[in-house]
Amino acid sequence: MAEQHKNFIGGQWVEPSSGDYFENRNPAKQSDLIGLFPRSTREDLDRAVRAAKSGFEEWRRTPAPARGDVLRKVGDLLSTRKDEIARAATREMGKTLTETRGDVQEGIDTAYYAGVEGRRLFGHTVPSELRNKWAMSYRRPIGVCGLITPFNFPLAIPTWKMFPALVCGNSVIIKPAEDTPHTVQLLVEVLEEAGIPAGVVNLVHGLGEEIGAAIVEHPDIPVISFTGSTDIGSIIGQTCGRMHKRLSLEMGGKNAQIVMDDAELDLALEGVLWGAFGTTGQRCTATSRLLLHDRIHDQLLERLIERAKKLKLGYGLDEGVDVGPLIHEASRTKVQEYVEIGKTEGTLVLGGEVPTGNGLDDGFFFQPTIFTDIKPGSRMATEEIFGPVLSVIRFSDLDEAIHINNEVKYGLSSSLYTRDTVSAFRAFQEMDNGITYVNAPTIGAEAHLPFGGVKQTGNGHREGGWEVYEFYSETKVCYLDYSGKLQRAQIDNYDASPY
Fold first, then answer.
1. Tell me, what's the pLDDT at 404?
2. SS3 annotation, 141-180
3. Measured distance between the N- and C-terminal CA atoms of the chain, rounded to whole angstroms
């Protein structure tokens, strides 16, 4: 009998009110049932909201440096359990152990950074325009934050959202992706061990269209942070706009790596292999387009095909595996559909099929796939696939490459390989992306820097770095007038008459 897991509400591990559960299976080995997780209802969410509102009242009054102390302890505990959590994440998400160790390390980095920010929630003190009057601002918490997280970074992204929210003094309700609930449960266990007060962190499992939608629609959850598809983000945006909620969206990408004719080709080759096929292409920052200069196109393409042929597919806990499975059958079906589109828009030069044998039949594996002769503006050049499929596009100069990069509706990440400083700074200035790398792939984020994109990748907010702390807090302006008389600002301070 598979283990039945629970929600975490008000400091207690509790069963769902409905008694219903959903299965969590290993995407590399569907025969491996990880556990049964609560299919929560609105009744469970209402209970979590009541607990979160109660927890907020205590937590908001805890000094921010003390809140940071709890997060530093979380970082210590995650460090101790790093390998255990990474193995659990590989089992339920599928990417290699090397990658999930990096995923957990990102959570550790975020915990320590958040711990320090507990002493750096700066406001401003500015001079008043009136005599004997003091003016200042400070950051104050908002309330209950609803966090809806994706499957591809089952530890890192929940920490990106949760830790800043907590340091700012909010309480949280987190709903992890139903494909990766166990990793977030382990994270909440760590927070419980670190001494987070009851009600401050609440975990409610369930399906996106059920409990995720309920979180977005709940009138007592004023802050929503969502990472997922642009289509779902648009629906969430409509609801939050109507209900006047604060909303952070981190959504899709169609990221390009541009390789100029003066680039270090060995470095560019390593970059595209990692960017396109790491995490089986299931990153919002994955390299989905490879733009090659005419002069190096054939040479680098030939080398890329040979290297990609040698990538080993398999279970991420096995030695020597480079590429794991897709997260579920629907994702693999979507990839197969785009392969058929690619065959009408370009030339298939590698992959394009579901592998068989060698223990791969029990998982959602798909071959690393490369298309050439893809034209700018085509579906393969503009639509997000979220799988191990790379579209190669030829260009003749940097102006053309920048135009191709910018033509898509997304604007998350971009990459330029060149030895020319002028080209590098033109890329920084002219590429419509929230992130641009020079001589590095399109993937990768550091905990102390803002992460996010423009256009239909997001709605202007950022995860990570210093900016996320502004999202999870409100600015309050305070005046103290000790003049002993009524002062009417501009009316008394300046002569209103021009004569």
1. 98
2. CCCEEEEECCCCCCCHHHHHHHHHHHHCCCEEEEECCCCC
3. 88
Domains along the chain with CATH numbers: 7-251+458-477 (3.40.605.10), 255-438 (3.40.309.10)
In angstroms, the Cα distances linking 188 to 9, 69, 77, 79, 191 are 11, 17, 11, 15, 5
Active-site annotation holder among 178, 284, 384, 463: 284
Give the span between the Cα atoms of 259 and 417, in whole angstroms: 5
The string of DSSP codes covering 359-409 is: T-TTTT----EEEESPPTTSHHHHS---SSEEEEEEESSHHHHHHHHHTSS
Closest CA to 272 of 293, 253, 255, 252: 255
Q: In sequence order, which residues have a C-beta less than 8 Å from that of residue 45 and are 6 or more positions away?
A: 173, 204, 211, 214, 215, 218
- Report pLDDT digits (tens) over 357-380: 999 999 999 999 999 999 999 999
Q: What is residue 96's DSSP assignment?
A: -
Model pTM score: 0.97
φ, ψ dihedrals at 256, nearest 5° = -115, 135
User: Can you say how many angstroms the Cα of residue 303 is from the centroid of all Cα atoms in its chain?
Assistant: 32
The answer to whether the Cα torsion of 309, 314, 317, 320 is positive or negative is negative
Percent of the chain clearing pLDDT 70 (strictly above)? 99
> Which residue type is seen at 103?
D
Calpha distance 425→142 (Å, rounded): 39
Contact 276, 390 (CB under 8 A): yes
CB 56 within 8 A of CB 170: yes
Instruction: Tell me which residue of 212, 389, 209 sits closest to 286, measured CA to CA.
Output: 389
The Cα 241–Cα 231 span in angstroms is 16
Q: Is 284 a catalytic residue?
A: yes
pLDDT of residue 258: 99
Mean pLDDT, residues 48-71 taken together: 98
| Residue in 99, 217, 250, 463 annotated catalytic | 250
